[in-house]
């Protein structure tokens, strides 16, 4: 099967497995796993931020960020399709007792003007607007990339209104490989950043939360409460270290293959629209009369796995294990569907 459901389905390469098996480890709950510590130091320097905390998942790093930036009854401003709202099980409400302010926006992105207009007045009838969350790349927007100037404008609005700014950077490296920007530019703009290693970078497990030393001290306490202390986590952190050293630049291959998938979809009569393809996510909108289930079933008959994305949308995601020969097979197979 050609599995394009997500970039989370990859297996570690032989070289990554070798790095994992030779890792020096300790007990990360006590803070003495040397490989975890090296990973946290390495990525902190990359972003020009003070400290980082290694966690099992991006959901956990996002949830920790929301907890440390807020208190109960505060409000989080985000897009209505953002991962922190749609795909984290209601965590902001359950874990931190927060109220979401959901904004519209093209391809899942919001603007500084929208943020400014959505901030609540100082009135006991409303929750306190406290935190803005951006997602880059934007999953529901088809891997859309925020314009750095717009993020800078949002940062200004946050500063003027005493709001914190968090980045859900699950696929952040896909964004900067495309734009050529430097991670340190983002480290200057956000109060905290979540980075995932188990998507395009191909590691089996793990995300980090970046911020100040004081924030990460508090974050470590919250991670403990969430059950995120992993003891000899260095075996996993070694995979993330390897990914940072070897799997960033190769993301351009995923982007190129996604572009070609997008071109294939445009040729099909049952696809009405293909979202602009910027990175490694391709979203097609089905023509009237065709259902997501129909296409997913037809794709599976041809040996292809994808996911339904709601409202007649189907998503394909390229990744480390999807090679040129798979792309050729995909093109031949999908043309058989009518």
Question: How does this structure look, described?
Answer:
The chain has 338 residues and is of the alpha/beta class. Helices cover 41% and strands 19% of the residues. The protein has a seven-stranded mixed β-sheet, with helices on both faces. A four-stranded antiparallel β-sheet has the order 9-10-13-12. The model has no long low-confidence stretch (mean pLDDT 97).
In short:
The chain has 338 residues and is an alpha/beta fold.
Explain the layout of strands and helices.
Layout: E1 2-3, H1 14-21, H2 34-47, E2 51-55, H3 58-69, E3 74-79, H4 83-86, H5 91-96, E4 99-103, H6 112-118, E5 128-135, H7 148-160, E6 164-169, H8 172-179, H9 183-187, E7 192-196, E8 207-211, H10 213-225, H11 234-246, H12 251-266, E9 271-274, E10 281-286, H13 292-301, E11 304-305, E12 307-310, E13 313-317, H14 324-334
Parallel strand pairs: 1-11, 3-4, 3-5, 5-6, 6-7
Antiparallel strand pairs: 2-8, 7-8, 9-10, 10-13, 12-13
Helix pairs in contact: 1-11, 2-11, 3-10, 6-7, 12-14
Give short descriptive properties of this protein.
338 residues, alpha/beta, seven-stranded mixed beta sheet, four-stranded antiparallel beta sheet, 13 strands
Rg to the nearest angstrom? 20 Å
Mean pLDDT comes to 97
Cross-sheet strand order for the largest sheet: 2-8-7-6-5-3-4
What general outline do the C-alpha atoms trace?
A: globular
Largest sheet: 7 strands, mixed
Judged by helices, strands and strand pairing, the structural class is alpha/beta
How much of the polypeptide forms β-strand, as a percent range? 15-25%
Low-confidence parts lasting 5 or more residues at pLDDT below 50?
Answer: none
Distance between the termini: 20 Å
Counted by DSSP, the helix tally is 14
Helix content: 40-55%
Would you count the extended β strands for me? 13
Compressed to H and E, one letter per element, the order equals EHHEHEHHEHEHEHHEEHHHEEHEEEH
């Amino acid at each position: 099967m050609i599995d394009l459901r997500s970039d989370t389905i990859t297996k570690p390469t032989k070289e990554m497995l070798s790095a994992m098996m030779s890792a020096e480890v300790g007990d990360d709950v006590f803070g003495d796993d040397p490989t975890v510590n090296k990973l946290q130091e390495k990525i902190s320097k990359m972003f020009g931020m003070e400290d980082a905390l290694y966690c099992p998942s991006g959901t956990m790093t996002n949830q920790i960020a929301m907890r440390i930036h807020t208190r109960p009854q505060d409000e989080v401003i985000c897009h209505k399709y953002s991962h922190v709202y749609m795909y984290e099980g209601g965590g902001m409400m359950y874990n931190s007792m927060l109220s979401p302010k959901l904004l519209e926006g093209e391809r899942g992105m919001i603007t500084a003007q929208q943020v400014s207009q959505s901030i609540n007045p100082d009135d006991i009838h409303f929750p306190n607007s406290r935190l803005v969350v951006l997602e880059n790349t934007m999953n529901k927007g088809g891997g859309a990339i925020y314009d750095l100037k717009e993020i800078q404008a949002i940062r200004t609005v946050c500063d003027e209104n005493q709001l914190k700014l968090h980045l859900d950077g699950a696929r952040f490296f896909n964004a900067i490989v495309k734009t050529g920007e430097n991670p340190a530019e983002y480290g200057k703009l956000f109060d905290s950043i979540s980075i995932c290693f188990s998507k395009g970078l191909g590691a089996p497990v793990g995300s980090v939360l970046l911020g100040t030393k004081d924030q990460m001290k508090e974050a470590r306490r919250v991670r403990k409460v969430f059950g995120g202390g992993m003891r000899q986590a260095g075996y996993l952190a070694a995979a993330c270290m390897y990914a940072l050293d070897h799997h960033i630049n190769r993301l351009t291959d995923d982007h190129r293959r996604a572009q070609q998938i997008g071109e294939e979809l445009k040729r099909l009569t049952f696809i009405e629209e293909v979202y602009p393809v910027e990175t490694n996510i391709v979203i097609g909108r089905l023509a009237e009369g065709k259902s997501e289930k129909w296409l997913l079933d037809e794709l599976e008959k041809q040996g292809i796995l994808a996911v339904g994305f709601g409202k007649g949308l189907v998503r394909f995601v390229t990744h480390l294990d999807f090679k040129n020969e798979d792309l050729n097979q995909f093109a031949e197979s999908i043309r058989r569907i009518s």
